[in-house]
Amino acid sequence: MEIWINPACSKCRGxxxxxxxxxxxxxxxxxxxxxxxxDEIRTVLGRLGLEPWDITRTxxxxxxxxxLKDWPREESxxxxxxxxxxxxxxxxxxxxxxxxDGSAVVGRTEEAVREALSRSRQ
Length: 122
Hints:
- With 122 residues, this protein is an alpha+beta fold.
- The chain has a single domain (2-121), classed as Glutaredoxin, CATH 3.40.30.
- Helices cover 42% and strands 11% of the residues.
- The chain has a 4-stranded mixed β-sheet with strand order 2-1-3-4, sandwiched between helices.
- Strand 1 (2-5), helix 1 (10-21) and strand 2 form a beta-alpha-beta unit.
- Helix 1 (10-21) packs across helix 5 (110-121).
- The mean pLDDT is 96.
- It is an enzyme of class 1 (oxidoreductase).
- Belongs to the ArsC family.
- This is Arsenate reductase.
- Keywords: Oxidoreductase.
- Pfam families: ArsC (PF03960).
Protein backbone atom coordinates (compact mmCIF):
# COMPACT_ATOMS: atom_id res chain seq x y z
CA MET A 1 0.00 0.00 0.00
CA GLU A 2 1.20 3.50 -0.82
CA ILE A 3 -0.20 6.80 0.44
CA TRP A 4 0.35 10.11 -1.34
CA ILE A 5 0.50 12.84 1.28
CA ASN A 6 1.21 16.47 1.97
CA PRO A 7 2.57 16.50 5.56
CA ALA A 8 0.91 19.88 6.17
CA CYS A 9 -2.54 18.38 5.49
CA SER A 10 -4.63 17.37 8.51
CA LYS A 11 -6.52 14.73 6.46
CA CYS A 12 -3.18 13.15 5.50
CA ARG A 13 -1.95 13.13 9.08
CA GLY A 14 -5.26 11.60 10.19
CA UNK A 15 -4.99 8.86 7.57
CA UNK A 16 -1.42 8.06 8.67
CA UNK A 17 -2.52 7.92 12.32
CA UNK A 18 -5.30 5.44 11.44
CA UNK A 19 -2.97 3.30 9.30
CA UNK A 20 -0.44 3.22 12.14
CA UNK A 21 -3.12 2.35 14.71
CA UNK A 22 -4.19 -0.56 12.51
CA UNK A 23 -0.61 -1.76 12.07
CA UNK A 24 -0.80 -1.36 8.30
CA UNK A 25 2.27 -1.67 6.13
CA UNK A 26 2.55 1.24 3.75
CA UNK A 27 4.95 3.49 1.90
CA UNK A 28 4.65 7.27 2.16
CA UNK A 29 5.03 9.37 -0.97
CA UNK A 30 5.34 13.09 -0.38
CA UNK A 31 3.91 13.91 -3.76
CA UNK A 32 4.80 17.61 -3.62
CA UNK A 33 8.49 16.61 -3.46
CA UNK A 34 8.29 13.33 -5.42
CA UNK A 35 5.95 14.61 -8.10
CA UNK A 36 4.00 11.92 -9.97
CA UNK A 37 4.46 11.76 -13.71
CA UNK A 38 1.54 12.06 -16.10
CA ASP A 39 1.65 8.27 -16.56
CA GLU A 40 1.55 7.71 -12.78
CA ILE A 41 -1.44 10.05 -12.53
CA ARG A 42 -3.19 8.13 -15.32
CA THR A 43 -2.51 4.86 -13.48
CA VAL A 44 -3.87 6.19 -10.18
CA LEU A 45 -6.93 7.59 -11.94
CA GLY A 46 -7.58 4.15 -13.40
CA ARG A 47 -7.22 2.57 -9.96
CA LEU A 48 -9.54 5.19 -8.48
CA GLY A 49 -12.07 4.88 -11.31
CA LEU A 50 -12.12 8.68 -11.52
CA GLU A 51 -11.33 11.44 -13.99
CA PRO A 52 -8.61 14.04 -13.40
CA TRP A 53 -11.14 16.79 -12.64
CA ASP A 54 -12.55 14.54 -9.89
CA ILE A 55 -9.26 14.69 -7.95
CA THR A 56 -8.41 18.34 -8.64
CA ARG A 57 -8.37 20.83 -5.81
CA THR A 58 -10.12 23.63 -7.69
CA UNK A 59 -9.87 26.16 -4.84
CA UNK A 60 -6.06 26.25 -4.93
CA UNK A 61 -4.43 29.42 -6.24
CA UNK A 62 -2.87 27.53 -9.16
CA UNK A 63 -6.31 26.27 -10.22
CA UNK A 64 -7.64 29.80 -10.25
CA UNK A 65 -4.59 31.07 -12.14
CA UNK A 66 -5.08 28.34 -14.76
CA UNK A 67 -8.82 29.01 -14.98
CA LEU A 68 -9.60 25.33 -14.32
CA LYS A 69 -13.24 26.01 -13.45
CA ASP A 70 -13.76 26.93 -17.11
CA TRP A 71 -11.95 23.90 -18.56
CA PRO A 72 -14.19 21.30 -20.19
CA ARG A 73 -14.72 18.13 -18.21
CA GLU A 74 -14.72 15.71 -21.09
CA GLU A 75 -12.50 13.05 -22.65
CA SER A 76 -10.96 15.48 -25.15
CA UNK A 77 -9.62 17.63 -22.28
CA UNK A 78 -8.41 14.73 -20.11
CA UNK A 79 -4.72 15.01 -21.10
CA UNK A 80 -4.76 18.76 -20.43
CA UNK A 81 -6.06 18.13 -16.90
CA UNK A 82 -3.48 15.42 -16.27
CA UNK A 83 -0.67 17.69 -17.49
CA UNK A 84 -1.87 20.41 -15.09
CA UNK A 85 -1.85 17.97 -12.17
CA UNK A 86 1.69 16.84 -13.02
CA UNK A 87 2.90 20.41 -13.40
CA UNK A 88 1.09 21.66 -10.27
CA UNK A 89 0.95 18.70 -7.86
CA UNK A 90 -0.61 20.87 -5.15
CA UNK A 91 -3.80 20.54 -7.22
CA UNK A 92 -3.99 16.78 -6.52
CA UNK A 93 -6.57 15.82 -3.90
CA UNK A 94 -5.05 14.13 -0.89
CA UNK A 95 -4.38 11.69 0.55
CA UNK A 96 -4.57 9.05 -2.16
CA UNK A 97 -4.10 5.49 -0.93
CA UNK A 98 -3.33 2.69 -3.37
CA UNK A 99 -4.50 -0.65 -2.00
CA UNK A 100 -2.77 -3.96 -2.56
CA ASP A 101 -5.71 -5.29 -4.60
CA GLY A 102 -4.99 -2.77 -7.39
CA SER A 103 -7.63 -0.26 -6.38
CA ALA A 104 -7.18 3.17 -4.80
CA VAL A 105 -9.18 5.61 -2.69
CA VAL A 106 -9.04 9.27 -1.85
CA GLY A 107 -8.65 8.85 1.91
CA ARG A 108 -10.26 12.04 3.17
CA THR A 109 -12.55 10.16 5.56
CA GLU A 110 -11.94 7.43 8.10
CA GLU A 111 -14.31 5.20 6.12
CA ALA A 112 -12.25 5.62 2.94
CA VAL A 113 -9.01 4.81 4.78
CA ARG A 114 -10.64 1.71 6.30
CA GLU A 115 -11.84 0.69 2.82
CA ALA A 116 -8.23 0.82 1.54
CA LEU A 117 -7.12 -1.20 4.57
CA SER A 118 -9.73 -3.88 3.96
CA ARG A 119 -8.82 -4.08 0.27
CA SER A 120 -5.17 -4.50 1.17
CA ARG A 121 -5.84 -7.25 3.71
CA GLN A 122 -7.90 -9.46 1.40
